[in-house]
Amino acid sequence: DPDSGDNGLLLYSLAGGQTEEFDINENTGQIFTVSVAGKAGTFNLEVQAADQGTRRLTARTTVSVTVDSSSSSNIVMVVLNQKINVVERNRAEIQRVLEDTLGWNVYIVDVYSKETERKARSSTDETQVKIIAFDEAHQEVPAEDVKRKLREKKGDIEVELEKVFSAPVSAAIGEAPGAAASAELVAAIVLGVLLAGTFIAFLAYVLLDLRRKRKYGKQDLVKQVDITEGIDNPWAVDKNGSLKSLEKPEHMNN
Predict the structure, then answer these.
(1) CATH H superfamily, domain 6-67
(2) How does pLDDT run across 152-173, given as a tens digit for each residue?
(3) Dist CA 193 CA 4 (whole Å)
């Protein structure tokens, strides 16, 4: 806004009211996430800019924000018998066909091929398309539900994709690689192992210490018995087999 003073001071806001997932800095217009845990896909935000003059002027625009959930366990792989460069070129149309057929919002996470560059130019090339689906609340649709729907609509999907590629299309469900364990999970496992090791070491120390005390306790008891029998027992016998005197030696009394 080229105006000066209040007429040139712009404040930004989200006109759509999507403040649960996103918020905006009213002075700079910077958009940032508030909470998108478990959510992904494309969000269309209506942003408004308004000056602060007496007669406030406003302007609005739509901002598309894509939240990538590539580490999600709900990613499903669709294998197409098409060359990767052709699939990449028709990425938007493939997404449209899947959305129309499945009835969910679909986000294509990745497109890649396991074939070498030489084979990628052949007509028998296969391309893997990793997708994730979202319901109207932008919640991830479980992978098993997506796979089930893909099997049910396989024929319809292939017919619509044939129109896109102008060639026969085969769409199969592949096995997407499992998500790697999170850092929190790894840390918890390591901590658990360390605690278990510490506990075992402590238990072993206690058992060894108890065993040692019992051993030396028995030795002390034997010594005490020997002393008692040799001094205090009036019926103890000497080397010749005769009874010892009931009187203790003078040095023992001292």
Answers:
(1) Cadherins (2.60.40.60)
(2) 999 999 999 999 999 888 888 8
(3) 65
